Amino acid sequence: MTEQTTIPATSGAFTDGMLLPRTVKVENLNHFFGEGELRKQALFSNNLEVRRGEIVIMTGPSGSGKTTLLTLIGSLRSVQEGSLLVLGNELCGADRDLIVRLRREMGFIFQAHNLFESLTAFQNVNMAAELVGLDPMIAEGRITSLLTRLGLGDRIHYKPNSLSGGQKQRVAIARGLVHKPKLILADEPTAALDEKSGREVVTLFQELARDEGCTIIMVTHDNRILDVADRIVNMVDGTIKSDVAVQETSVICEFLKDFPLFSDLTPTTLAEIADQMMVHKAEPGKTVIRQGEAGNLFYLIRSGSVDVLIDEGQSKKKVAELKQGQYFGEAALITDEPRNATIVAKEKSVFYALGKEDFRAVLATSATFEEELRQALFNR
Amino acid sequence: MSTPLAWKNLTHNKVRTSIGVAGVGFAVILIFMQLGFLGAIQKTATQIYDALDFDLLLRSPAYLHLTEPRDFARARVYQAASLPEVSHARPFYLGLSEWQIPITSNAPLNQEASDTEDLSGQWRGIITMGTDPNDPGFTRDDICKQARQLSDPRFVLIDSESKSEYGPAQGDEFSRADIGTETALGPRRVRIVGLFKLGTGMASNGACLTNPEGYVRACPWQTINEVNFGLLKLHDPSQVEAVKAKLQHIFGIPASVSDAKSQQHHRAALLTNVDVEILTREEVNQHEERRWVVDTPLGQIFQLGVWVAVFVGVAIVYQVLSSDIANMMGEYATLKAMGHSNKFLARVVLQQSVLLAIVGYLPSLAISWVLYRIVEAESGMPMYMTKEIMALVFVLAVVICVLSGLGALRKLFQADPADLF
C-alpha cells in the first residue's frame, strides 16, 4: 500500500513531486499588542509552511494581521508565543546576533522606499551590498545590472529627489535584492509602479525564485500580479483563513480537466476537488491498489509512473503504463465494485488521492454529470 | 571603500548642516574668546614683575596685590645688599595714585594742585612706580634709557599702553605729542617728560614712572624710607634658594612649612613678627596668577564662560543631529532591518558629530584669530592663540559634538524596523 500523508495536495509541498526544504515554518503562532488591560491579540494560533523557491502572496483586509505576520517572519518583531522557524533558525527567543545575521540573509522591500536622500541610487543599493561583504567589483556589476534591468540604467547616479516615486521604489527593490537574499519580504512592492515596471519586478522575483531558490513572501492587493503566486495565503482577523498553493492547484486542475468526467466542471469546482486531495507516496515496486479489494480512493499521478496489471488466473498481465497527470481508481468508486486491476509503482511516485465520499459528492453536483457517466460506462 | 554615509548626510542637507556648523562655530568662538581672555589675564598678571630685574624679591608679608603692595623698611634692602652673593639690591616703589586728565593750565609746576582749576579735570587711579633713574632695575633697556630723564621729582614717564581715559593729547594713546604736558599726580603737579611701553593688565588701566622723591610726592602717605619692593640680583642666579635661606636667617623669618594648618600659623607669625618676605620669581608669578585666575571672580567668570559655551554648543548640535535623525528615522530603521547593528548606526552618527566638529572648528579658528587681533587692538590685552588653546578648543569642540551625538543616539536606537511595513 501507499504511504498516506496528512499533507493536502494543494499545500504545494510536492511541487514536481519533490519535497522541498521549508524556508519558513510557522507553528501555533500567537501575537499580542499592548500591555495589561490593553493587551489585544493580533494573531491566533497560525500555522504556515513556505518552501524554498515559493512565491507567496498574502492577502486579507487591513488589520487582519498579515503585516504582523510578515514582520514576525522578518525578525523585525520578537516572537511571543509559538514557534517560528526561518531559514532553519528558531526565532522564538532568538538573541540579537542571530537576528542581525538572519536579517542579512533576507531582503526587505517596504511600501515606503526609505532611501537615503543624501546617497545616489547606486550608493543606496550599495549599502545592502556592503553589509554582506560583497566584493566591490562584483557588487558594482550586480548593482548596475539590477538597476538597468529595473529600467533605471540612465539614472544610476541620480539622487532620490531627482527620481519619480516609481523609480525610487525600484531602487528600493534593487536594494532588497542585491545581496541575493534567501528570503524576500515585500510589502506592496508594485503599488507605486506602472503596469510595465510592475511586471518587470515580478518577473525578476520569479527568476530569483526559479534560479536562486529564493523564497518570496509579499503582501499585495495588486490583482495584476496574482498570477505569479505559487501560494496565496488569505488572512482574516488574525487567522490564516486559506492557504492555497495556487500553482500546484492549477496543475492539479489541469490534470483533473483531462479526466472526462470532470471536463465540464467549472474551475471553482475543480479547485475545490484539488483542495480535498491528499498526498500519497509510493516506493518503486509497491502495490498502490490491488485487484479485488474494495476501492475507496481516486488517484492522480503527480510524479512517477505506475503499471496497470490485470490478474488472469495465475499470471498478471500488464495492460498499461500510466504517467504523470494520469489517473486511476475511479471505476471502483463509481460502480461500487471491487478494484478491477492492480496498480504497481514503477518508480518513486507521488499521488494525489481523493476520497470516495468526496469523489461521489462531486459527481452528484450535477445531474447531467451522472447521466454522462452512465453513458460513458455503458459505452465501455 | 565603504559608502561615506555620515559625510553624505552632512553635505546633503546644507541648511541644517550650516545651522550645526554655526552652532559649533558659535560655541567654539565663545570658548576661544574666554580662553583668550583667561590667557591674557594670566599673561598680564605678571607683566610688571616680568619687566623688573630680580632673582629674589623682598616685599611686605602683608602684600595683597599689585595695587595694594604695602611697604617695609628700606633698610632691609641694604641689609640684603650686604650679602656677598647679592650683586644688586634696589629699592623699588610702587603704589596706586591718582592721575588727572591733562587740561590746559597756566599754573606753575611747583604749585600745589589747586581746587579751582585742577579739580575740574577728571581723576583716574594710576599705578605709580618710583625708581632710581640711574639704576632703574628694569629688564628692558628701552625703559631704563627713558628712566634716565627722571632727574627731577616733578618729572614722570607715562606708559603708552595706558588707556585713552588718561587723556592723551592725540588719539587713543600717549605719544610724543604728550611730552611736556603738565598735569596733577596725586596732590602735586608733574610734567610728562617721556614715554615707556609696559602695560598693566587687569590691575590698573595705566601706569607712570617717576623717581623715588617723585613717588613720595605722589603718594604722601609713604616716606622715602618705606619701600614696596626690594629687587635683589645675584651674581649666580642658581644660588637663589641658598641665598633665600640665608636672608631668612638674617631677617629672622621662620622657615616655611608644608602642611596647610601650620602654614596658617606661619603666615600669622610672619605678619606679626617680621616686616619682610622673600620670594623667588616663580613664587611671585604663582601668587599673581592665583590672585587673578583663582581668587578674583575674573578668572572664574571666564572659566564659567567656557562651560556655558560648551553647554550652548551641546544644545545646538544636539538639536541639529536629533532632528536629522528624526527626519531619517525610516532610513535608519531600514538599515536595521537590512541587518545593520546598532553599533554601525551609532558609528554613523558619531562620525557625523566629529565631522561637524571639524567643519565647525576650522572657520571658527580663523574668525577667533581675527577677533583676538581686534580685542588686542581695542583693549591692549595681549591675546595669544597658543597651540595649547587651539588643541584644547578642538578637543572641546569634539566633546561637544560627541556628547550631542550620544544624546541623539537614544532617538536612533528607538528606530523600529517593525514600523516600516
| Cα end-to-end separation of chain A | 28 Å
Largest interface: A-B, 35 and 26 residues
Which of globular, elongated, flat, extended, rod-shaped describes the shape of chain A? elongated
Rg calc of chain A: 25 Å
Largest sheet of chain A, order of strands side by side?
Answer: 7-8-9-4-10-11
The H/E string of chain B reads: HHHEEHEEHEEEEHEEHHEHHHHH
Please give the number of β-strands of chain B. 11
The gross shape of chain B turns out to be: elongated
Sheet with most strands of chain A: 6 strands, mixed
What does this structure look like?
The complex is a heterodimer of chains A (380) and B (421). Helices cover 32% and strands 29% of the residues of chain A. Chain A is an alpha+beta fold and 380 residues long. Chain A has a 6-stranded mixed beta sheet, sandwiched between helices. In chain A, strand 2 (22-33) and strand 3 form a beta hairpin. The radius of gyration of chain A is 25 Å and the shape is elongated. The two termini of chain A are 28 Å apart. The mean pLDDT of chain A is 84. In chain B, the strands form 2 sheets. A 9-stranded mixed beta sheet of chain B has the order 6-7-5-8-4-3-10-1-11. In chain B, strands 2-9 form a two-stranded antiparallel ribbon. Chain B is built from 13 helices and 11 strands. Chain B has helices at 5-12, 14-45, 47-51, 75-81, 141-147, 212-218, 240-251, 260-273, 281-295, 297-327, 329-338, 342-379, 387-413, and strands spanning 56-59, 72-73, 86-100, 123-130, 155-159, 182-185, 188-196, 207-210, 226-227, 229-234, 277-280. Helix content of chain B is 51%, strand content 15%. Chains A and B meet through helix 1, helix 2 and helix 3 of A and helix 1 and helix 11 of B.
